[in-house]
Amino acid sequence: MNPSAKIGAFFDLDGTLVASPSLEWQFIGYLLGRDAMGGGEIFRWLAQCAKDCLRDPRAATIGNKQYLAGLRASLADDWANSLAPCSPRFFPAGIECVAWHIARGHRVFLVSGTLKPLAEIVARRLLGQVEVCATELEVCNGHWTGRLAGEHMSGEAKARAIRRIAARFGLALWDSYAYGNSVTDLPMLDSVGHRVAVNPRSRLRRIARSESWQGCDWAKPAAGVADTGTRQLSPKEAR
After folding, report:
1. Are 101 and 129 in contact (CB under 8 A)?
2. What gap in Å lies between CA 85 and CA 179, rounded to an integer?
3. What CA–CA distance (Å, rounded) separates 102 from 232?
4. How far apart are CA 165 and CA 179, in angstroms?
5. pLDDT digits over 4-42, tens only?
6. What does the alpha-carbon distance between residue 99 and residue 212 come to, in Å, rounded to a whole number?
7. Is the dihedral of CA 22, 76, 119, 18 positive or negative?
8. What is the C-alpha R_g of the chain?
9. Beta-bridge mates of residue 186
10. In the 8-state DSSP scheme, what is residue 112?
């Protein structure tokens, strides 16, 4: 095997490669604008929140997708087709960093808590082969059920996913890279040898400084991938 192919590069999406608002919030805005989601869906979401809040507050929020129950799964493709060429808004240095890894033959993965159909849309808008590991939704007869098909891809779930990916592709995690912007990305960052805090929030910034991790500020988004230029930056250059 080419030694470069044993190196992985794992990127968080929201706040790391893609500017705010999050992909899921952008999708929710699209659903509301199309009247595809209304009071009934919001009520189901709130009811599930109330049901799960005492037992598991985290599941009551990030793991609760009841607002999607009964909606066509193809709405994700409809959203993709509605996007302007400049959407979603990528951080240009992040795109160049992805290109740097691809040019060196590294395997690139998006590891995100966002919905997998949305992450796949982003992957198609990047240049080169990029694989997706994100939160999967249960589908029945072409419609979302509002339940997850597996665990929400955040926190320790990201670390478990990276270990599975490494075993599948024979990756050397100590030589691999991970990019994240939040403390919820710490398990993913701790899974590899090269940890990069991107646009870090205050707590992650403190941890990165104390551990002497590399830090990158990619905070100014470009109008779109086409505007990022062609020069490929190394992770150290893209600060």
Report:
1. no
2. 25
3. 10
4. 16
5. 779 999 999 999 999 989 999 999 989 988 888 766 666
6. 25
7. negative
8. 18
9. none
10. E
- In angstroms, the CA 51 to CA 187 distance is 28
Domain chopping of the chain, boundaries: 3-20+87-138+147-227
Pick from 34, 120, 131: nearest CA to 75: 34
Cα separation, 177 vs 71, in Å, equals 37
Superfamily of domain 3-20+87-138+147-227: HAD superfamily/HAD-like (3.40.50.1000)
Nearest-angstrom CA–CA distance, 14 and 21: 8
- Per-residue confidence (pLDDT) for residue 239, from 0 to 100: 43
- Please name the amino acid found at residue 163: R
Q: What is the DSSP string of 128-148?
A: S-EEEEEE-EEEETTEEEEEE
What's the angle, vertex CA 195, arms to CA 193 and CA 196, rounded to 5? 155
Residue that is written with structure tokens 């994240």 in the block: 180
3-state secondary structure of 116: helix
pLDDT digits (tens, 9 = 90+) for 116-146: 999 999 999 998 899 999 999 999 999 999 8
Amino acid found at 72:
R
Measure the CA–CA gap between 145 and 126, rounded to whole angstroms.
Answer: 29
Which residue has 């009934």 as its token pair? 40
Q: What is the DSSP-derived secondary structure letter of residue 90?
A: B
Structure tokens at 87: 């959407």
Report the half-sphere exposure of 133 (CA within 13 A, side-chain side). 22
The two tokens of residue 216 are: 């990158």
Give the DSSP letter of residue 198.
E
